[in-house]
Amino acid sequence: MAASFRQNNSSLLSGLLTVLSCLLVFLALASSVSCLPTAPAAPSVAFPETQYWKRIEPVVVTSDDGGNTTVIDPSTNQEIQQGSATDGGGIDFSVPAIIWLAFVFAVGVPLALAGIRLWRATTGAGIGLALTALVWVAFVNSISAEGLSDIVITVISLGAFAIGFLIGVFNIGRMAGILTLGVLGGFSIGIRIILLRPGLLIPKYVANWFVLAVFMIIGLGAMLYRRRFGLLSSCAAVGSFLVALGIDLILNKQSGMAAGLRFLFDRNSAHFLAIVHAGYHPPVITQVLLGASIGAIPILAFAQHKIFSSPFRPVSTVSDADTDSASLVEEAAALNKEKTVEKEGGSRTDTPGSESLLSSRFSSS
């Protein structure tokens, strides 16, 4: 009775974390929506009392001598105060920049080279990176023109990573970590493709997010229906992205991939002049790094597959060979069957050679 209660409680917590991870993905998409002013559109003919709103871009006004530039809100004709557009990345090799540089290499290199073998650290990194991205995007899109210290944004963002990492390390966060890693794998590939061109891949800003959504769905689908392939490709994708970002930070500092990420994620109206109006113009070396990191994904994934043939779990069992090629959908069916057997039989005795699909996959030992 107590064992059944603990198992149901663990399943409930795991399911809750999975739902939360999907919610984080939704918020990541929602947080990219432009923070620019809105203006009333023409009233509807059928319903004249209804007022719809459309998003518009501020107007940049430059003085005749070019010494003064002002951003005007067309809906109110009022000036929009512009800030320093701080993002926590620092300048050149300042302390925040060095912290981020160490972070992307510390997380990216292990994922790229041995993510399939790191088990709990990999699932922890999946949730941690998702939380870090969400917190960072939320801050850069919501801070006022006065800005916030780079070191404060850095500490808060990395604190979010620590919390997410701890959740993913424990067994209750395992499923959420796996699914989140799949989404991040597709997301990291989509970002690199979008950042290849100056001004993003598609001139229409919102269209780029549809491209990202497609890659995120593909990454999640790969994780759901062929787990080992999904893990290998996602670890290689996320790891190679972080390593490429680190190399680019060394070579181009904040004017390469970092500038592209700001242009993609930061639509704060107080940063319009520094981010949106300035545009995104990647150096050639950044474009080379983006393309090379994408090309490295299948190589890194295949290398991990050959070097680390053991399943994605701490302890191997006889049935691991079957579970590693199974999908998460099949695991869910196995869980339902297990629960039915337990209810009908009252108790169940496990043998080392007949461990169930689900328990062999998600054993915390």
TrEMBL record:
N-terminal signal peptide: 1-35
Ranges of biased composition (kind: Low complexity): 354-365
Subcellular location: Membrane
InterPro entries documented for this protein: TM7S3/TM198-like_dom (IPR025256)
Keyword annotations of the record: Membrane, Signal, Transmembrane, Transmembrane helix
Membrane topology recorded in Swiss-Prot or TrEMBL: Multi-pass membrane protein
Residue ranges of every copy of the TM7S3/TM198-like domain listed in the record: 102-303
Classification via Pfam families: TM7S3_TM198
Domain of life, source organism: Eukaryota
PROSITE patterns noted in UniProt: PROKAR_LIPOPROTEIN
Keyword Electron transport recorded: no
Cellular component terms per the entry's GO annotation: membrane
Region Disordered, annotated ranges: 338-365
Residue stretches spanning the membrane: 97-119, 126-145, 151-170, 177-195, 207-224, 231-251, 284-303
Basic and acidic residues: bias regions: 338-347
Protein's name according to its UniProt entry: TM7S3/TM198-like domain-containing protein
Species in which this protein is naturally found: Trametes coccinea (strain BRFM310)
Taxonomic placement: Eukaryota, Fungi, Dikarya, Basidiomycota, Agaricomycotina
